[in-house]
């Protein structure tokens, strides 16, 4: 059953953290490694979902602001932060409506696994770059555009029903061009292939059929001063 992004994440919120998500399991270790070397003091998590990256940053005593357009996902993130005693500044907001923050307010921005749902990634990346200060960093992760081009979809199961969310076709080059158009320097581009998915997170026949197919895209960029 295909549902809108808003409806899909409202349904998914209650089980999102308990699922064995193959994108998350290959993405998180690489994100943690990249962030560990960056001089971050004030971070913005755009599309925080249930707060996985926001909490990881807050555990490093970084000042974290996080937004999401899904009230259900944001509630989960707030509950987790409260349980851990973490101070995170949460906002219900949408990237497509413009970020409710000043220009150059943050020295780091992470946008994880969400641009694949947006038709205008150039506009989205422009707005992300706006709120990052000169010499600050942007880290973008996403369902790889090559995977979407193959017809793979963001999907989940809940209460004996299968759901798919809209995924907009983009290109790898489109992400990079959008960042360079904003005056960013690309420091790393990581194409994570299907074969890196651990056992149990995807059907074995899928992994064996597409071992070298790009599955997750990670881009680290720096806004020039």
From TrEMBL:
Gene3D superfamilies linked: Vaccinia Virus protein VP39
Annotated Methyltransferase type domain residues: 44-140
TM regions (residue ranges): none
One GO MF term attached to the UniProt entry: S-adenosylmethionine-dependent methyltransferase activity
A Pfam family: Methyltransf_11
Protein name as it appears in the record: Methyltransferase type 11 domain-containing protein
């Amino acid at each position: 059953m295909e549902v809108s992004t808003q409806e899909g994440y409202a349904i998914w919120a209650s089980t999102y953290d308990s699922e064995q998500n193959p994108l998350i399991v290959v993405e998180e270790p690489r994100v943690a490694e990249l962030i560990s070397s960056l001089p971050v003091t004030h971070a913005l998590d755009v599309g925080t979902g249930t707060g996985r990256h926001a909490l990881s940053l807050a555990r490093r005593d970084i000042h974290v602001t996080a937004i999401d357009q899904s009230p259900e996902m944001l509630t989960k993130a707030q509950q987790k932060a409260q349980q851990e005693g973490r101070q995170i500044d949460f906002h219900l907001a949408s990237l497509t409506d413009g970020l409710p923050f000043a220009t150059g307010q943050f020295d780091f921005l992470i946008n994880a696994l969400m641009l694949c749902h947006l038709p205008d990634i150039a506009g989205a990346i422009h707005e992300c770059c706006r709120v990052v200060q000169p010499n600050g960093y942007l880290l973008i992760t996403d369902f790889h555009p090559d995977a979407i081009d193959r017809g793979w979809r963001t999907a989940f199961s809940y209460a004996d029903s299968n759901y798919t969310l809209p995924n907009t076709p983009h290109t790898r080059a489109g992400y990079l061009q959008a960042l360079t158009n904003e005056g960013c320097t690309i420091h790393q581009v990581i194409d994570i292939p299907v074969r890196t998915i651990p056992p149990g997170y995807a059907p074995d026949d899928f992994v064996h059929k597409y071992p070298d197919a790009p599955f997750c895209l990670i881009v680290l960029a720096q806004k020039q001063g």
